[in-house]
Amino acid sequence: MIKFTIITLFQEALEPYLKSSMMWKATEKGLAKFDFVNLRDFGLGPHKSVDDAPYGGGDGMLLRCEPVFAAIENVKAKDPSAKVILPTPVGEIWTQEIARRFVSDAHYIILCPHYEGYDERILSIVDYKISLGKYVLTGGELPALIIIDSVVRLVPGVLGGETSAEIESFSKGNNLEYPQYTRPEEFRGMRVPDILLSGNHGEIAKWREEHSGTV
Ligand code: ADE
Question: Is the pLDDT of residue 164 over 80?
């Protein structure tokens, strides 16, 4: 079973997705487990503060070290083998190849930063810095969901057909999936290519090979 513990201030933003569709099925089948840790529980002082202004000035607030370390150490006390993922726009760009490497019985802690950023010393407790692309989001929750979704669907048994994840886009390097059609044969003047209706499996395989990368 692959396990994700998500450290966040916004559990309510993550939960509906993880309780839907394939992520929920993966949980029900015992193939994946999702836990939440409320960073606020580790906040400082009467207001359970988790952020502060940056030294040297500047806009915005930064996640403080103490609550983050306390939250992560709390999880690691129960499972020292857990690895920490930090979604950040300056991390390694997430790809299908990396997603495949993450599929295992491992336990991943995903720390979702918010505010303008985080104290740099937080990086000393992080194993993987992951960027979802060259744009900036308001927090780590959407990246966390994308990382989880793209890894969990590769766990054997999560997708319906065992081979679905194998034959689809990206599984052989970076080539994209071939175009696919279902009923009807003609829709608003757009016809399904004759070859796909021919029943000739050799020709169909050849056509698919030739048309890979066009979607
Ligand atoms: N946090 C904010 N923007 C991000 C991005 N592009 N990827 C990962 N984490 C982020």
Answer: no
Binding site membership of 190 for ligand 1 (Cβ less than 6 Å): no
The string of DSSP codes covering 30-46 is TSEEEEEEEGGGG-BTT
**Is there a domain that residue 165 lies in?**
no
- The pLDDT assigned to 7 comes to 98
As to burial, measured by CB atoms within 10 angstroms (0-12 exposed, 13-18 middle, 19+ buried), residue 22 is: middle
- CA atoms of 195 and 95, how far apart (whole Å): 33
Q: Are residues 39 and 82 in the same domain?
A: yes
Residue 147 Cβ contacting ligand 1 at under 6 Å: no
Distance 134 CA to ligand 1 centre (A): 8
Q: Which CATH number do you get for residue 125? A: 3.40.1280.10
- pTM (whole model) above 0.85: yes
Residue found by looking up tokens 């029900």 in the block = 28
**Residue with CA at minimum distance from ligand 1 atom 6:** 89
Do 45 and 129 sit in the same domain of this protein?
yes
Distance from Cα 88 to the centre of ligand 1, integer Å: 4
User: What's the total number of domains in the chain?
Assistant: 2
Find the mean pLDDT for residues 67-77: 98
Task: State whether the beta carbon of 137 lies less than 6 angstroms from ligand 1.
Answer: yes
Q: Which residue has the tokens 């175009």?
A: 179
Q: For the segment 77-123, what is each residue's pLDDT rounded down to a tens digit?
A: 999 999 999 999 999 999 999 999 999 999 999 999 987 899 999 99
